[in-house]
């Protein structure tokens, strides 16, 4: 289980990063990795996509996902990031969707203009709940990772 320090590091990395790479499973069994901008509410991770996108279709078929988040670094001794395995689902709750929408507009104010005049009825908000997280922190040694379950 994650210690309080590991949990704080997990959230700090999510708070600091604008993008993540999510791997879903395609219908033909191959993994598909896609980079998306995201927001987080503590440990909960959210991103928006069109409901008919390949990644949304993949998640509807199989909710298991892998994610990587990397922070910018100037040399290898400063590498920090994470990888995780978890489950993804489309958010259906209106209150949760509204809260996530506000988080997205706060983190990405340009979103308001980008979606102006666009039919949002085909938009889907995806929530990722981590089940296992590997924290990368090369400041603790080259290649240092800490693999923990999230409760």
Q: For the terminal residues, how far apart are their CA atoms?
A: 7 Å
Write down the secondary-structure element order. HEEEEHEEHHEE
Unreliable residue stretches: none
The structure class reads alpha+beta
The total count of strands amounts to: 8
Q: Tell me the count of domains.
A: 1
Gross morphology is globular
What share of residues is helical?
25-40%
Q: Strand content of the residues, in percent?
A: 35-45%
What do you see in this structure?
Strand 1 and strand 2 form a beta hairpin. Helices cover 26% and strands 41% of the residues. It has one domain: Roll (Pnp Oxidase, Chain A), CATH 2.30.110. It is α+β, with helices and mostly antiparallel strands and 151 residues long. The longest helix has 14 residues. Strands 1, 2, 3, 4, 5, 6, 7 and 8 form an eight-stranded antiparallel beta sheet that branches.
């Amino acid at each position: 289980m994650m210690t309080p320090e590991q949990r704080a590091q997990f959230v700090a990395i999510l708070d600091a990063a604008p993008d993540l790479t999510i791997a879903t499973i395609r219908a033909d069994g191959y993994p598909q990795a896609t980079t998306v901008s995201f927001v987080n509410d503590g440990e909960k991770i959210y991103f928006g996509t069109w409901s008919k996108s390949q990644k949304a279709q993949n998640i509807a078929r199989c909710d298991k996902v892998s994610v990587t988040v990397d922070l910018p670094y100037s040399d290898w001794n400063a590498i920090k990031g994470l990888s995780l395995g978890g489950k993804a689902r489309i958010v259906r709750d209106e209150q949760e969707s509204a809260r996530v929408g506000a988080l997205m507009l706060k983190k990405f104010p340009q979103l308001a203009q980008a979606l102006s005049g666009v039919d949002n009825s085909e938009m889907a908000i995806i929530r990722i709940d981590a089940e296992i997280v590997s924290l990368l922190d090369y400041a603790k040694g080259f290649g240092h990772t800490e693999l923990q379950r999230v409760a």
